[in-house]
Amino acid sequence: MQNQSNRGSNRALNRGLAPVVPTGDVVGEFTNYLEAVALVDSIVAGGFAANLIAIVGSDLKSVERVRGRLTYGRVAMNGALNGAWLGLFLGIIFASATSAGEFTNEVIAAAVLGAGLGMIWGVIRMSTRGARRQFISGSLIIAASYQVIVPTGMGAKASEMAAKTQA
Predict the structure, then answer these.
(1) Whole-model pTM?
(2) How is the beta sheet containing 54-69 ordered, strand by strand?
(3) How many H-runs (helices) and E-runs (strands) does the chain carry?
(4) Which among 44, 61, 45 is positioned nearest to 53, based on CA atoms?
(5) Average pLDDT, rounded, for the chain
(6) Which pLDDT tens digit goes with each residue over 12-21?
(7) Model confidence at 143, in pLDDT bands (50, 70, 90)?
(8) Measured in whole angstroms, how far is the alpha carbon of residue 13 from the centre of its chain?
(9) Where are the domains of the chain?
(10) CA angle 40-50-8, nearest 5°?
């Protein structure tokens, strides 16, 4: 079994997929990811091989943005919407065997039933969970700085191509 694992790792190394930080010539350093992407776009537009370029982020930070307060009303609405979609999907599947006149009624009934069950399920889940979190948020991993790196000895060529396309 270990032999197979080693073979898998060797294949990853041969394809350049090993988790190593790229090294080489730094063509540009930025504090904004979109600026690094713009430089890569201009280098590639100049004819430089895209697979030789890497954007390396450093000093990673986890950023959690609070999007709103978690209330029973919001939980009920989200549960109803999710339940309605599930009910609509299942209604279409099961009603496809019925006549055309009954199809619409069955699909609508399934969507309404799904919305009701989803709403009830969401409220019950929030009630049993307690007051762990009273807000909704989303998390991102963001780097404080970004470097555009090309293989050693190719930095001047990449910079030249970027200058041509930006002029």
Answers:
(1) 0.57
(2) 25-30, 135-150, 54-69
(3) 5, 3
(4) 44
(5) 85
(6) 555 656 678 8
(7) very high
(8) 25
(9) 24-70+142-167, 72-132
(10) 125
